[in-house]
Amino acid sequence: MSHSGLVGVYLSVHTPRYCTYDAAFAGKLAHPDFQAVRDGLVAQGRHVATLAPDAIVINSCHLIATFPTVVDGTPRHAGVLTAQEAPELIHGVAYDFPGDFELAAALVERGRAAGLPCTLANDVHYPLDYGTVMPVVCYLDRAQRIPVVPISVCLSADLDESFAWGRHIARATAALGRRAAFVASGSVSHKLVRGPERWPGAAEQELDHRLAQLIADGEYDKAWAWLRSVVRQRQLRHLADVLEFRAKPKEASVRVLRLMMILGVVVGLLAGQAARAAETVKIGFITSLSGPAGVIGKHMKDSVELALDHLGRKVGGLDTEVIYGDDQRKPDVGKQLADEMLKKHKVNFVSGIIWSNVMLAVAPTVTGAGTIMVGTNAGPHELSGKMCNELYFTTSWQNDQTPEAMGKYMQDQGINDVYAMAPNYAAGKDMINGFKRYFKGRIVDEVYTKLGQQDYQAEISQLRGKNPKAVFVFYPGDMGIQFLKQYAQAGLRDQIPLYSVYTVDETTLPAVGDAALGNFEARYWSPDLKNEASQRYVADFKKKFGYTPSYYGAQSYDGILLIDSAVRAVKGDLSDKKGMVAAMRKADFKSTRGKFTFNVNHTPIENFYLLRAVKGPGGETEMQIQKTIFENHKDAYYHECPMKW
Amino acid sequence: MRSRARVLTLLAGLLALGLVPLVAALTQQPFYLDLFRRIMIFAIAAVSLDLILGFGGMVSFGHAAYLGIGAYAVAIPAFYGIHSGLVQWPLAMVLSGLAALAIGAVSLRTSGVSFIMITLAFAQMLYYLGISINAWGADDGMRLARRSQFGGVLDLTNGYVFYYVVFGLLLTLLWLGNRLVHARFGVVIRAARSNEPRMRAIGFSTFRYKLAAFGIAGAIGGLAGALLTNQTEYLTPSYMHWTRSGEIMVMVILGGIGTLYGPVLGAVAFLLLEDVLSAWTVHWQVVLGPLLVLVVLYARRGLWGLLPEARRADG
Amino acid sequence: MNWLLVVEQCLNGLQFGVMLFLMAAGLTLVFGIMNLVNLAHGSLYMVGAYLATAAVTRTGSFLAAVVFALLGTLAIGMLMEVLALRTLYERDHLDQVLATFGLILFFNEAVAIVWGRAALFTAVPSALSGHIQVLPGIRYPAYRAVIIVVGLLVALLLYVVVTRTRLGMLIRAGASNRTMVGALGVNIRLLYTVVFGFGAALAALGGLMAGPIYTVLPGMGEEILIQVFVVIVIGGIGSIRGALAGAVVVGMVDTLGRAFLRPMLSTVIGPSAADNAGPALASMLIYILMAAVLYFRPQGLFPALRG
Amino acid sequence: MPTAEPLLAVRGLIKRFGGLVATDGIDLDVAEGETLAVIGPNGAGKTTLIGQLSGDLPPDAGSIRFAGVDVTALPAPARSQRGLARSFQITSIFREFTALDNVALAVQAHAGHSFRFWTPAFTERALREPARATLERVGLGARADVVAGTLAHGEQRQLEIAMALATRPRLLLLDEPVAGMGADESQRMVRLLRELRGRHTIVLVEHDMDVVWALADRIAVMVYGRVIACGTPEAIRANAEVRRAYLGEEVPA
């Protein structure tokens, strides 16, 4: 929300009992029920912090002017406050925050132009009420750094005048290029009754929720109509009294006038409507687009584009911009891309990442910057374990889960004398360890080969010498293509069954073809998975791109849908991280793997299937699901993750 | 004595580098801070390589190994809880310097292409060693939980402070490098490149000086490694892969060998091009490749060489 | 020790060595004769593999693919020499490294643009997909046996051309004193272009033989390039004999190391330590070998007899 | 010549290149202050001899004693430190550096270790003064600041002598100092070398017989890697063996 104009509207309250530091933070709350209100105010404060507005226009119902509307443009508001109505609760509170003379002057100028009686105060001694000072000093801007423009309630103004003032505030801030927040200090459900325990009950509070909901949904006309009707229907006792306001204390009438101003502000935002709608969801998608691994990056990028098509190019109902980055399979390049997206493009989400070492460099950078990260492939055990983070989700798996599934299947089949092979690097050892977590049979030998090795003839001869009953391997990308071809060429394909993980998939099948026939794989998803979302994804993908999608793609497709579900849940308020995280935790979207839930560490709990490479209807080799190995399988590291929810 | 054009370009360049943080602050784009800090770190590595490559004629194709050692010298102590930069950075320079001395002792017995290949061989050995040691993350690498601490005096987590630390180190390196290159030690190295047999005939046993230069270059490379780990808060053995040594070499040659300022220009040009082109098209390498060829064909002494030279060849 | 296995591994080592020789021959020819460090030799190996694969998928015949790949890469090699490399012969090795590094970037990306980033489908020609009985009890893939034969034939052909023919004499003369040969009226520029094209064709032959058993994708040249440089340095730069000897030595050491190093090591330092150190050591073996050779015999095992 | 131990004593020096025996058991003595010329047809092994004396070529057999010390095993730099300087048959100088720098480097080589990283070497008076003086001495004073590579061929030969002198040598090995020079240039070189006679022991390898007769105290004649005669110029002029060697009737070894 980098555009100017009103960027935030807050319905704030200033009941003396929880309007001081002691009451708010030192635990001496007058009444436990205020806890929720206090937390709401603290949340508003945090929101103002992330919003970092250039100015706050605050309208407190205790700052009353009888004839003109007073706009206080004093450049510096400093003084010592004792609340007029509650000297014993708020006394001797020093305050010193800047003002915004330019904005106040512009506001008064607009008011005068529109024929509204108003004066511009520019006087250090202009008295501010506790309704103006306390919410700012205690909750909204404790550092007292943001310029504040108090604006009074005008007793003799009618509803339309208050409404007009609202629109002027919105337009003045936009014209000056200020990113301003409007604070209405006092709530709709104000109840002028003695005794804190008889504070506005559920019915009155409902008014607040109703108004907030109407404004949030952008239903300004309805809000306008509702407020007028509330006044007419005398639903509220104190509001009913308003009509004979001459006879009632000024508080009651002031309430309605302020409501009109709030509404005016909000409706005034209509002018700024475009600004709000202009807010786009920016997603940074980092993967490997160049070099030998570029093909995997292409699968992911195409799937993201397809997801956007299915969402009508709008994530969470907002315009969406996806910025792709090529990490060239290098962790430091990945990190630099993440920095660029966070600081330069100011993205709201970062997603993608194929390789574990790149993920371990990028994820902490993103979550550290307070941005939500949705991983769509790499599943290093650290991120499912002690490095799990509230802002980090993955729509794939934890690396070890797939070999665990294969280990379980081979254990259940009672296979023995297995020959295990993998490249000599961290992921290779993870795979074999994951396999051994469930496979308890005899392992003839564990062979680790050079990373990126091309010729496996020596290892194949060695393997044949040991004549094992089965072979388990992990050879991703080009290593897999070479190993499979050489394994078949050595004539072992029909002698010793080959079981593998992350080796035979839709990115390598085109290059391996029949040499993969009969190969067993374990995976959480396959193009032939029978569920409506997956079938739609596969069909549309083939139609749009002309090749079969892989799990790399399905995970990325799900990642975008997850983000969409979160943004939709918070109604497009991208600053509401907590709300989005809560929404994501529900995994409330039509995933290609079917219904699944997130574990405590934000790693999916999902099924794992046994796949086999068979001759497809079209004649080429494809993977088909044979049976389910695990139902709702949890990763092996979630107990290391401290998160509880 | 350098030509005016070169002195002006040099000053303008260094001034620009110094002002980047200001520009970044004004345009609300802190990203440029990270981009140029990374460029300066590689400039330090390139200048250290140029000490032996440009001035000493020792074409080391394994210089990235010392960056790797420097990086590990920061990450491993941090892994065990020692976060003080005052321990890590000197350790990085000492360890990489010693490694360079050891590798140099063997490599300097060869010359020409054999020297290029043997230095490459040792770097690849360190690379494969790195990816097979599980205790330190092997290929997955290690995360730097906290950047090097300097007892609150220097807070590297603050982008601007870290930027000026790197900038200061680059300036110091250029200054000290300049002194070294013109002092007796540097003269011996440069003369050995010009005519080794003649050096032996007039009484210099050049081996010990070349080895010392190799060690110094390795140590500064180690410092660059330490900075790089703090920059990316992460390190993997892939920092030591031969293609990374190739990239540092390209920066030196692209900038112009045999001058301390060439490699800085080379680093800026190469990494900026990489960033700009890759943002423009995913096929950026098809543009960068021919560009390098053109530089070799038409800018014979590198980009720095394009600037008019001083009247008398400055030795 | 199962002797049959040892013999089979030696055969594997020989085959891997011959495969390396196919590439090393072209590189050492260009390097030795024209004193040109050509990092882009791996790219020509890749181009050869791609042209052959494209031809096989279109025509279905492996032989047609071989001819098409050799001629195509010959032309590309000569074009590359004329456009980029011709002026670099007198230049410093450093400039040659930078220029050819640029060519690597160009070729990898160009191939990706034309054929896409995904690996192409390649398979051993059906005629050669069977096995042959080399020795009682040892069945050896026919295709790999063909590689050995082709490799040795190429070695013989090269030896004859370089030592017995007029072109060979010109090439050797050009190596020792380029200007003198030019002075004798020989169009030295054309000679170098032809030699470079010939070197490129050799690389292409290596590429098209490797295609069916390795992976054909952008960047496939660089992984093998480093091993080939090790070969020519061990063998002795510029000497065809050296390239062959170096290739076989590297092939054997690397293959036998991967097969038997761990068992041998475990007898010395115990199985668990061997399991950990073995693989790492195996990957480093050829580099340790090269460092040793360079230390004791910097000019390589069979230095080229020139100058 | 006094019977004190010779400054340079060579005994049984043999050097083979494959089948070719370049120096076939050479014995030679050079007394302090003497100028010995070594002459012989091309390929007689003269340059191989100089190479072995300077330490660039390790002999296959035999010994070299210099100033009473067996230096056979010492590498070239160590011999230079002991005062044994040489010039090269094919000019070998630092082409990118100025003439003054070239000579200053030679001075620097003998002015302690060069592990100094601070003061710019080209401004150290302790190196520049002696270098400039040596340049003056060989007649290149005016050309001090010219880049060596751009000097004329003759001037470069003079520069080589200057570099040798700058190492304050006890013995000068000069390998064809006037090779490739015009008449007047070689006259100037001879005048320079005559000036050095007596103050330095000189071993002079030369083809130009005028230069030899003008400078040599003694002459050694080498043919096919062997010294077939050694003596005063007059003796050598009269020696039948030498005439036959020079008149082309090769005497089989």
Q: Which helices and strands appear, and what pairs or packs with what?
A:
The complex is a heterotetramer of chains A (645), B (315), C (307) and D (253).
Chain A: E1 5-12, H1 21-25, H2 34-51, E2 55-60, E3 64-65, E4 69-72, E5 76-81, E6 93-98, H3 101-113, E7 118-121, H4 130-140, E8 148-150, E9 153-154, H5 159-176, E10 179-185, H6 202-216, H7 220-233, H8 237-243, H9 250-268, H10 273-277, E11 281-287, H11 294-310, E12 314-315, E13 318-326, H12 331-344, E14 349-352, H13 356-368, E15 372-375, H14 381-384, E16 392-394, H15 401-412, E17 418-423, H16 426-438, E18 443-449, H17 457-466, E19 470-473, H18 477-489, E20 498-500, H19 509-512, E21 520-523, H20 532-545, H21 551-569, H22 577-585, E22 597-598, E23 604-615, E24 621-633
Parallel strand pairs in A: 1-10, 2-8, 2-10, 3-9, 4-7, 11-13, 11-14, 14-15, 15-16, 17-18, 17-19, 19-20, 20-21
Antiparallel strand pairs in A: 5-6, 12-13, 21-23, 22-23, 23-24
Chain B: H1 4-26, H2 31-55, H3 64-79, H4 85-107, H5 112-132, E1 142-143, E2 149-150, E3 154-155, H6 159-182, H7 184-194, H8 196-201, H9 206-232, E4 234-235, H10 242-255, H11 261-280, H12 285-298, H13 302-305
Antiparallel strand pairs in B: 1-4, 2-3
Helix pairs in contact in B: 1-2, 1-6, 2-6, 2-9, 2-10, 2-11, 3-4, 3-5, 3-9, 4-9, 6-7, 7-9, 10-11
Chain D: E1 8-17, E2 20-30, E3 35-39, H1 46-54, E4 61-66, E5 69-70, H2 76-81, E6 84-86, H3 99-109, H4 125-138, H5 153-166, E7 171-175, H6 183-196, E8 201-205, H7 209-215, E9 218-223, E10 226-231, H8 233-238, H9 240-247
Cα-to-Cα separation, first versus last residue of chain A = 30 Å
- Structural Rg of chain A: 31 Å
The assigned structural class of chain A equals: alpha/beta
CATH topology of the largest domain in chain A: Protocatechuate 4,5-dioxygenase, Chain B
Largest interface summary = A-C, 39 and 49 residues
Please state how the strands of the largest beta sheet of chain C are arranged side by side.
1-2
Secondary-structure class of chain C: mainly alpha
**So, the CATH homologous superfamily of the largest domain in chain A?**
LigB-like
Q: Element order, helices and strands of chain C?
A: HHHHEEHHHHHHH
| Tally of contiguous helical segments of chain A | 22
Mean pLDDT of chain C: 86
Defining traits:
heterotetramer; A: 645 residues; alpha/beta; Protocatechuate 4,5-dioxygenase, Chain B; Rossmann fold; eight-stranded mixed beta sheet; six-stranded mixed beta sheet; 24 strands; 41% helix; elongated; D: 253 residues; four-stranded antiparallel beta sheet; 9 helices; 35% helix; globular
